[in-house]
Amino acid sequence: MPKIRHLAIRTEDTGKLAQFYMDVFEMQLLHKDKKEGGAIFLTDGYFNLAILPNHEQNAPNGLYHFGFQVENGEATVERMKKINYAKLPKPRPDGRPYAEIRGSDPDGNYFDIPSMVFSTWSR
C-alpha cells in the first residue's frame, strides 16, 4: 500500500521556517542547499519535510506538494492511464536532491512518486 513519505512547503525564508520545525518538533537536518535561502530538507527519521524557497511571483507560501512511497511506480502510472487521466506524471529536473516523478490529481494538487522505479517506464 502506498504511504505518504514527504511534504513540501514553499516559503520566502527557508532558514526561519526550518528552524521553527527543528526547535518545536525536534526535526533533524537531512540536507541544506549550499546557497543562502536555498532548499532545506528535514526528517523525523521516517517522514521528510522539504522547505523550499518561493521565487514565483503571485505564488502563495504554504503547502506545495506531498510525496508517496510506492512499491511499483509503473503500476501507479498504469492505474492513472486506466482511468484515462490526461496528466500523467513527468520526470523532475536532474541535479536536484530528492527530485522524483511529479504528477497531479484532478484538482491540480501535486504529488511525487519515487523516480527510481521508472527505469523501464516509457513516457
Keywords:
123 residues, 2,3-Dihydroxybiphenyl 1,2-Dioxygenase, domain 1, 7 strands, 18% helix, disordered C terminus
Please explain how this structure is put together.
The chain is α/β, with parallel strands linked by helices. The protein has a single domain (3-105), classed as 2,3-Dihydroxybiphenyl 1,2-Dioxygenase, domain 1, CATH 3.10.180.10. 18% of the residues lie in helices and 33% in strands. It has helices spanning 14-25, 73-82; strands at residues 3-11, 28-32, 40-43, 48-53, 62-69, 101-104, 110-113. It has a 7-stranded mixed β-sheet with strand order 2-3-4-1-5-7-6, covered by helices on one side. β2 (28-32) and β3 form a beta hairpin. The longest helix has 12 residues, at 14-25. The model is unreliable at 116-123 (pLDDT under 50).
Mean pLDDT: 83
How many beta-strand segments? 7
Q: β content, as a range?
A: 25-35%
CATH architecture: Roll
CATH class: Alpha Beta
Whole-number total of structural domains: 1
Classified in CATH, the superfamily is 2,3-Dihydroxybiphenyl 1,2-Dioxygenase, domain 1
* Model regions low in confidence, pLDDT < 50 over at least 5 residues: 116-123
Order of helices and strands: EHEEEEHEE
Give me the oligomer status. single chain
- The strand line-up of the biggest sheet is 2-3-4-1-5-7-6
Tally of separate helices: 2
Fraction of residues in H or I helices: 10-25%
Gyration radius (Cα, Å) is: 15 Å
The shape is globular
The N- and C-terminal alpha carbons lie at a distance of: 24 Å
Structural class: alpha/beta
* CATH topology type: 2,3-Dihydroxybiphenyl 1,2-Dioxygenase, domain 1
